Hints:
The structure is a homopentamer of 375-residue chains. Chain A is built from nine helices and nine strands. The first copy, chain A, is α+β, with helices and mostly antiparallel strands and 375 residues long. Chain A folds into two domains: 256 residues, 2-Layer Sandwich (Beta Polymerase, domain 2), CATH 3.30.460; 81 residues, Up-down Bundle (Methane Monooxygenase Hydroxylase, Chain G, domain 1), CATH 1.20.58.340. A seven-stranded mixed β-sheet of chain A has the order 2-1-3-7-6-5-4, sandwiched between helices. In chain A, strands 8-9 form a two-stranded antiparallel sheet. In chain A, strand 4 and strand 5 form a beta hairpin. The radius of gyration of chain A is 37 Å and the shape is rod-shaped. The model of chain A has no long low-confidence stretch (mean pLDDT 84). Chains in contact: A-B, A-E, B-C, C-D, D-E. At the A-B interface, helix 6, helix 7, helix 8 and helix 9 of A face helix 4, helix 5, helix 7 and strand 8 of B.
Amino acid sequence: MNHSIKRIRYNPRRKAGNIGDSPGAIIIPEDAVKPLICVFSYNAKELVTNEGKSIKVVLDQFKKCPDHTHWVQIRGLGDAGLIEDIGAILTINPLVLEDITNIHQRPKFDEYDDYLFAVSRMINFTKDYELVNNQFSALVKDNVIITFEETHEEYFEAVKNRLASGKGAIRTAGAGYMCYALTDTILDRYFALLAKLGDQLDTVEDRLYGNVDKSIMFETQQLKRTLIVLRRSCWPERDKINDMLRTENSLINPEVKLFLKDAYDHCIQIMDLIESYKEITSSIMDIYLSMVSNRMNEIMKVLTIISVIFIPLTFIAGVYGMNFSRVDPVTNKVMPDNLPELYNPHGYFYALGGMFVIGIIQVIIFWRKGWFSKL
Amino acid sequence: MNHSIKRIRYNPRRKAGNIGDSPGAIIIPEDAVKPLICVFSYNAKELVTNEGKSIKVVLDQFKKCPDHTHWVQIRGLGDAGLIEDIGAILTINPLVLEDITNIHQRPKFDEYDDYLFAVSRMINFTKDYELVNNQFSALVKDNVIITFEETHEEYFEAVKNRLASGKGAIRTAGAGYMCYALTDTILDRYFALLAKLGDQLDTVEDRLYGNVDKSIMFETQQLKRTLIVLRRSCWPERDKINDMLRTENSLINPEVKLFLKDAYDHCIQIMDLIESYKEITSSIMDIYLSMVSNRMNEIMKVLTIISVIFIPLTFIAGVYGMNFSRVDPVTNKVMPDNLPELYNPHGYFYALGGMFVIGIIQVIIFWRKGWFSKL
Amino acid sequence: MNHSIKRIRYNPRRKAGNIGDSPGAIIIPEDAVKPLICVFSYNAKELVTNEGKSIKVVLDQFKKCPDHTHWVQIRGLGDAGLIEDIGAILTINPLVLEDITNIHQRPKFDEYDDYLFAVSRMINFTKDYELVNNQFSALVKDNVIITFEETHEEYFEAVKNRLASGKGAIRTAGAGYMCYALTDTILDRYFALLAKLGDQLDTVEDRLYGNVDKSIMFETQQLKRTLIVLRRSCWPERDKINDMLRTENSLINPEVKLFLKDAYDHCIQIMDLIESYKEITSSIMDIYLSMVSNRMNEIMKVLTIISVIFIPLTFIAGVYGMNFSRVDPVTNKVMPDNLPELYNPHGYFYALGGMFVIGIIQVIIFWRKGWFSKL
Amino acid sequence: MNHSIKRIRYNPRRKAGNIGDSPGAIIIPEDAVKPLICVFSYNAKELVTNEGKSIKVVLDQFKKCPDHTHWVQIRGLGDAGLIEDIGAILTINPLVLEDITNIHQRPKFDEYDDYLFAVSRMINFTKDYELVNNQFSALVKDNVIITFEETHEEYFEAVKNRLASGKGAIRTAGAGYMCYALTDTILDRYFALLAKLGDQLDTVEDRLYGNVDKSIMFETQQLKRTLIVLRRSCWPERDKINDMLRTENSLINPEVKLFLKDAYDHCIQIMDLIESYKEITSSIMDIYLSMVSNRMNEIMKVLTIISVIFIPLTFIAGVYGMNFSRVDPVTNKVMPDNLPELYNPHGYFYALGGMFVIGIIQVIIFWRKGWFSKL
Amino acid sequence: MNHSIKRIRYNPRRKAGNIGDSPGAIIIPEDAVKPLICVFSYNAKELVTNEGKSIKVVLDQFKKCPDHTHWVQIRGLGDAGLIEDIGAILTINPLVLEDITNIHQRPKFDEYDDYLFAVSRMINFTKDYELVNNQFSALVKDNVIITFEETHEEYFEAVKNRLASGKGAIRTAGAGYMCYALTDTILDRYFALLAKLGDQLDTVEDRLYGNVDKSIMFETQQLKRTLIVLRRSCWPERDKINDMLRTENSLINPEVKLFLKDAYDHCIQIMDLIESYKEITSSIMDIYLSMVSNRMNEIMKVLTIISVIFIPLTFIAGVYGMNFSRVDPVTNKVMPDNLPELYNPHGYFYALGGMFVIGIIQVIIFWRKGWFSKL
C-alpha cells in the first residue's frame, strides 16, 4: 500500500471571506504564498525572459518590447496589491479579480468587452501520492496573457521549452494560442494521472484474484473518489473549451480554434476514461463483496461439514457413556443386562464401526450435494 | 453525536388552506409570527432607517424620501391585512400575495408587467443543529424592494452593514441590485452549511476506520437527507437566477446581470458540492455495510475455528468416556479387554497427545488456508 | 397497521375491447355506473342548477340560459348513448369519445378546431385507505364545459361552493377557467395525499428506530408503489398543463393562463415531493435491511460468545470424563496412576478453577476486541 | 410454473449474411417459410379477395381493379425471387428489400421519393407461453400497401373482419390508413401481453407473501427480460409513429394523422406500463431477497436459541460426568469427598433444578431482547 | 472456460509522447509495425492493384491511372516519414497526422476545406479470444482514400472481394462510398462479436441453473467489461456517422448518404444489443449472488436442523452420564437411590425411546415450518 492514493479530505480549505461579503472583494487565502513573477516576451525572432517579485518587472518589459507577445506567469497569490495593480493596468472587473484569489472556482471561460478570463483546475499528485487540485486562471488581453497559479511549483516546463526552441506556432500565434497551449498542457497531465490510476486499478484487481483483504475496499473507494474529483474538474473544462470554440472574439482566431478542437477531443477522451474507470471501480467493489461473501461461505461450509459429521457421533458416544445399569439387589453388583450393548464383548468395536459408517455416509451425501466443490 | 444533524420530519407544517380553495386567497400559516417592518431608504449620499409594526411606517418613508431606493424588510407573516395593504399599494396580483404566505414555494422568478417577484429558500441550522428551511420572497417595483421572511431572526446583517458603510455598488445600483445582494447572501449561507456538512462527513468517515457502530448509519442517512433538502432548494434557485439573467426587464440592468452571472456560478458550485457529498454518503454507506459484514465474518471465523478444532477432540473424549466393558461372568469383575486403550498404562497420555496433534494439524490447515489473516 | 396502504393490484380492470377493434368505438367498461347529470349554468349574476339522468336536462338548460356559461358534470360512464348524443350535439371526433370511456388514459390536452379535450387522473384514498385512480375528462367548447367522472362520488364540492358563493373569478371567467379550477382541485388532492403519505413515512421511520419487523418492508414497498402510481399520473399532468399554457386557443385566455401558471408550479411542487419521498423510501429500505442484518449479527454474536466460551470447557470436562484407568492385574482393582489428576484430592477444584480462568480469559479477549459493544 | 414465461435465448437466429457483404443483397433467413400471398382489393363498395403463391395473383388483381386500394399480405419470406419481383414492379431501393428479409430490424419509418417503408415488431406469446418477436414490414405506394410477415400465422384477423364488414374509415381512407390500422393492431397486442404479464406479476407477488422459493427469482428475472424485449421493440415504435406524424407525404393524410396521434398515445401508455412493471419486478426481487434473508435469520435464531440454552447445561452435565474421585489409600475404595456434590443424597435433583433455572433465565433474557418476535 | 474472454488490461499501451508536447508532432507508438502499402486503383472497367513498402508505389499508381479512384491501404504505422510524405502530398494539417499515429482516438469525423478525416475502432477477438481494439483512420480527398491500420492483419477481405467482382456500386461510387463500405464492414464485425458474446451469455446462464461457482462471476464481469469497451467504441461511431450524414461536402454525395443511413441503423441496432446484454449481465450477477446466498442458506439449514435435533439429545445423554450416586456409608457401596432412573431395569430403553420421541417431534415441527422445502 506504499503507493496507494492518500485519503481526500472534503474541506481542506474553505471559501475565504464571510457570508454576505461585498462581491468583488479580493480576499487572499490564508496559506497563500508570495508571488513569483516571470515575464516571457516573444515574437518569431526572439524570446526575452525576466523574473522578479513586483509589478515593476512587468511594466518594464511591456515598455521594452511593445510589439512582442507577453506571457506574465504569476506563481503565488499572496499579494492582494499585485492583483489590484494588474486589475488597474488592464482595467479588469473586480469580480474577475475576486475569482482569481477565490481558489475554488470551476473551470470556466468568461468573455468581457476587451479581455478574456479562463479558469482551469491543475490536477496533480504530490510525491506522496496525494491529490493536488489547484486553480489556474488566465487573463488574455491584446498581446498579453497573465496567468495565476497557487504555488511556486513548475508546471509548464514543457511549454517554456517549446517557447525557447521556437518550434511550432507558439512564438507566432499570439496570446490566444498561449492560452490554448497552457490549457492543453493541463489536460495532458490528466492522461498521465489516469495512466497511474489505471495501473493502480490493475494492481488492485490482481489482488482481488488472490487473497482479498479490507485494504482493497479502502483503496478502491479512494480511487473512486479521486475519479469523482477528476470528473468534477474535467466536465466543466469541456464546457469551457466549447465556450472558447464558439466565441467570436478575435483573440481566439480560427487557427487557435483548430487547436482548441483538438483539446476538446482530448477532454472527451479524458471524460471517457474517467467514466470507464468509475464503472471498473464499481465492478471491483462488487467482486470484492462477492469474494468476501464467498470466503465466508467456504469457512461456514467447513464448520457445517465438520459439525454435522461429528454431532451425531458425539451423541452416540454420549449414549454409551450413560450410566444405566442394574444393581443386582442380592449381590449388590452391577449387572450387564441393562445396556446390553455395553457388555457385548465386541460392543466397543461395533460402536466405533457404526460411527465410522455413519460418518462415511454423511461424507458421501455431502459429496453428492456438491458441498466439497468450491463455491 | 452531540453535534450531529437532527432528524428531518417530512411534514413539519402542511400547505395551509383546504382542497379546492379559491386561488389567490391569503392564508396565514398557523404558527406565523407578527411582522416586524424595517424600511431602509438610501441613495449614494444617505441611508434613512425606520422600524415599526404597521404599514404606516412604510408609507411615511416613501413620502419622506421620494427619490431614494427603499428596501422594506418584513420579518414575520402573521398579518394578512399588512400583505393585502402592500398588494393594494403596489397593485400586486392576488396569486403573488398567496405565494408570499404559502410558505412551501420552490425558488422561482416571475415577471409581471411592472414588477418582479422572486422566491428563495433560506437554509440554515439552528443552534441545536436542526435544519431550518424558511421562505424568502421579494417584490421589486421601480425603486422599491419589499422582502418577506418567516421569522424575526436576523439573516441579512452583512447586507445591512454594507448598506451602512456605503461601499461598493449597493447604495447606487437600485432595487434590482438589492434583490441580487440578498439572493447572494442566501447562497453564501449554503457554502457555510456545506462546510459544516463536509466536516461532519470527515468525522463520520474517521469513525468508519475505527470501531463501526449503528450511529454511523443513522448519521449518514441524516446527512444524505439534508443534502436532498439542500438540492431541492438549490436546483430551482439556479433556474431562478437563469430566468433573472434572461429577463429584459429594466429593473435587472446589465450591471446587475454581471453580478447575477457571478451568483449563478456560485449556484453551480453549490450543486457540484452537493452532488459530490451525496456520492460520498453513498460510498460511506457502502463501506459501513461492508465493515459490518467483515466484522461479522471475523466473529464467525473465530467461532468456526474454535468449534472445528474442539468438535473432533470432544468426540474423542466422548468415545473414551463410553462405558463399554466386559464383566467377567465368573468373577463378576470388569475386565480390561473390551476397550483395550483404556487399560493401556499410558493410554491417557497417548490420547491427550493424539488430541493435541489433531488440534495442531487443524490449526496448520487453517493457517495455510489464510483463515488467520484479517479479511 | 390498521391505517396502512392497501396493496395495489396491477390489473384491476383491463382496457375494454378486443385486439384490432375499430378506432373510435365507444366501449363502456363492465363495471361502469349509470350517469348522473348535473348542469350548472352561471354568469356574474346568477347560478342555475339542474340535475337529471338524461341528456334532456342539458338541452333544456342550454335553451333556458343561452348566454350563461354551462358546466355539465356527468358522473358515471355507463350509458354509451348519452356519450354519443353529446358527441353529436357538440360534433366531437369519435376518437375523443372513445378516450372518455377508455378509462386508462394518461393526462393529456388535445386541441381540436373548435373544442378542447383534457384528461386528468383523480387520485384519492378510499376510507379503507385503498388507492383510487379514476379518470376525469373534460370537453370545452364555447361557453360549455362537459366533464366526465367514473363514479358518483362527490369530488368537486369546493368548486361548487365557490360557484355558489360567487366570489373570485369563477363566475365570470368562462369555461376555460372552470377547466382550470377543476384541474387545480385535482392537484390540491395530491397535496392532501402526499401529506398522508408523509405521515406514514414518519410512522414507518419511527418504527425503524424501535423493533424492526417485516411489516416495515411491506409497508415501505406499498408506499413506494403508491408513489410510482402518483408519479405516473402527475408527470403527464405537468405536460398537459404546459400544453394548455402554450395553446393559442381563445378558450384559454391570458387570465386563465396566469392561473394555469400557478397550477403548473403546484404540479412541479408535487413532483418534487414525490421524488423526495421516493428517495426516502429507498433510504428506509436500506436502513431496514441494515437493521435486520445488524440484529442478526447481534444474535450470532451471542451464539458465538457463549459457544466459544463453553466449547473448550466442555472439552476439558469430557477429558476428565474419560475412563482411562489401570487395573492392577494382581488385585484387579482400579489404580490411580493412569489419569493422575483425577486422584489428586483437590483435582476437581483445580479443574473447576482452571475452567473458570479459561472462561474469564476468553471474556477479557472478547471485551478487548469490542464484541460486547453494540454493532 | 405451468404458465410461466419461457426463458429467452439471446441469439435464436443470427443476422444472415457474412461480414462485409454488399449492401442491398437479399439474404433469405435459413428457416424462412414459403410465402402465402393474399390480395385484398377494396373500395367503399366492394372487397375482392384473392390468394395464391406467386406474384401473378397480385398482378392479376392490380389489372382487374385499377381504382381499388390493394393490400397485399405476404406471409413467409422464403422466396427471394418474389421480393425481387415486387421490388421491380414498385421500383424499390435494394436497401429496403434487404431490410425486409433481414429480420432483426428495429421499428422504423423511412420515406422515399414515391413510397414509404415501415417496420414493426410483432410481439406475441405462443401457446407454450414463449415470446415470439417477429418482423412486420410494410411498403406503401400510391393505392398499394404490401406487408411482409415472417410466419403463416394469422395476426390481423380483426382488421380483415373490419374490412369485410366495411364499417369505419377502413375501406375509404386509402393505403396510409391501412398502414395505421395494422400498426395499431400490433400495438393492441402489447396491451394483451402486458395484461398477461400483469397477472403473472400479481401471481408471483402473491407467492412472495407465502412460502418463498427460488422459482420466484427465476420467474421474476424472466418477466424482467420479457419487459426488456418489449421495451426494445416499443421504444423505436414510438419514434416511428412520431416520424409518420411529421411526414409531409400525401399518403399519410391529415385524417390518418389524427388516428396516428391516437396510436402514439397508445404507444406512450405501453411504455408507461412497461416502465412501471419493470420497477415492480425490481421491487419483487428486493422483497424476495429480503424474505430469503429473513427466513435464514429465523432459522439461525432457532439454532442460536437452542444452542445457547443447551450449551451451558451440557457443560454442567459434563462437569458432573467427570471421574474425579479419591481412592482411599488404605481401603483402596472410592471416597465421596472429592466431588462433594456427587455424593449429596439429593445432588442429582439439585443439579437438574439448577439446570432448569439456568435454562429458564436464558429464555427470559431472550424474550426480553425480543428474539421470539418475528423479524 | 476454454473459450471465455481474456481479462482486459486498463493500460495496455499509453498515449505516446510527453506532457506539454507540441501539438501536431507525429509520435510513432513503440510497438508499431513497419507499414505495408496496397494501392487499389479502380473504375467501372478495371481494377489495378499494387503493393509495396514505400510511398513510391502510391505515386506511381496515381500517375498511371489519373482518372481512377484510388484506395491506398496502409497497414502498420511504424514509419513517421511515410505519414509525413502523405501529409505533404495531400497537404494535410499536422494535427490530423498526429491523430493517425496517436492510436487512442475515439471514432470521429472531421471535415477540412478540401479533405475529410474519419477515425473508427476496429474491434475484434484474437484466436485466444482476447479483445483487440485497434484504430482505423481514413483520409478522403478527391478521388483518393488513404486508410491506416495498426497491424498487418487482413480485415477488409470482403471489401476487396467486392472490389474484384465489381458488383454493386463499389467500383463507380467514388472515394466517399469506399469510406462508407469500410466503416460498414467494421460495424458488421460488431454483429459477429455480439453473436459470440450472446452465445457466451447463454452458456454462462446455463451454468447458473446448474452448480454455481466463482468462475461465473469472473466471466460475467469480463463480459460486462467487454461490453463497456464495445459501447465506448460504438457510441461515438454513431455520432461520427451522423456527422457524415449532415456534411455538405460533395465527397459524401446523396447516394453515399443513403447507404450511410443504413449504416446508422446498424449502429443503433448494435447499441441496442449492447445495452440489452449489459442489462443481462447485471441480472446474471444478481441471480448468481442470490444463488450463492441460497446455497449458503441450504447448508446452514442442514447444520441447524442436525444441530438442533441432536443438541437436546446429547444433553440428555450427558445428564445420564453424570456420576451422581450415593455411597452407603456403612457398606461403602454405590446405592441406586440417587439417580433413580439409572437403576430402573428398563431405564436405558425408556431414555432411548424418549430421545427418539423428542427427535421425531422436532423433525415434525421443522417440517411444518417448511424447513425441508427448498428455499
